[in-house]
Design a protein that fits this description.
This protein has about 120 residues and is an all-beta fold. It is about 0% helix and about 50% strand. The protein has no helices and 11 strands. The radius of gyration is 13 Å and the shape is globular.
Length: about 120
């Protein structure tokens, strides 16, 4: 069965850095597009970043552009989210997601059939 497992979340001070990782089993990352989404308490799940199966193109939410970097290592069947210059508003549960590389949408949660359990990121002031 397909399983995505996030790791790397935790408590970090504003301005600091954090690196999230997502490892897959039952799914070859080289055959799917991936995304990172986040959900803050009481808020809807929102798009953070996406990456093509090949790593050839990436997309970022305006709120994280220039601070976060999504990457993939298909040989290790993992993707990462490097979070730099974090802000308190980055506090959320971060989810790794995967979908077959069909269509042009990359920021719609319902388009991603595979999800991890989430990893919590808390940014203190």
């Amino acid at each position: 069965q397909v399983q995505l497992v996030e790791s790397g979340g935790g408590l970090v001070q504003a301005g600091g850095s954090l690196r999230l990782s997502c490892a897959a089993s039952g799914l070859t990352f080289s055959s799917v597009d991936n995304g990172w989404f986040r959900q803050a308490p009481g808020e809807a799940r929102e798009f953070v970043a996406a990456i093509r199966w090949s790593g050839g193109s990436t997309h970022y939410a305006n709120s994280v552009k220039g601070r976060f970097t999504i990457s993939r290592d298909n040989a290790k069947n993992t993707i990462h989210l490097q979070m730099n210059s974090v802000k308190p508003e980055d506090t959320a549960v971060y989810y790794c997601a995967a979908k077959l590389p069909f269509g042009n949408d990359y920021d719609i949660p319902d388009d991603f059939p595979y999800w991890g359990q989430g990893t919590r990121v808390t940014v203190t002031s």
